[in-house]
Structure formats: C-alpha cells, structure tokens
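FIELD: query
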Amino acid sequence: MEKTLLTVDEARSILRVGRNVMYDLTKNGLPHIKVGKQIRIPREALYNWIKSQTTLS
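FIELD: result
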C-alpha cells in the first residue's frame, strides 16, 4: 500500500535532490502540509507538481 503523505526524505528521494533543495521547494510552491512541526507532501500533489514543472523542448 502506497503512503498518501510523504516525508521530506521520501519526496526528495523521488526528486533526487538534497535536503536543502527540498526545503527550498516547499517554501517556493511545492504543495505540502504541516503536521505539527513536520512537513508532509501529498504523493498525488508531488506528481502533479512534477508534471506542471515539466517542459517540452
């Protein structure tokens, strides 16, 4: 069963970026929610965000 909400580390492994880049993305438009002090990224929102950032040459 796939998780609905991803941790920052799980999302960054999908994007293959570092921890600082991941936090910068959440500050600059990557959809996320806060659960207490923790950030969670909805899996479907992450994939939709990736599609919206994809450009065709």
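FIELD: remark
Residues 14 and 47 are 10 Å apart (CA to CA).
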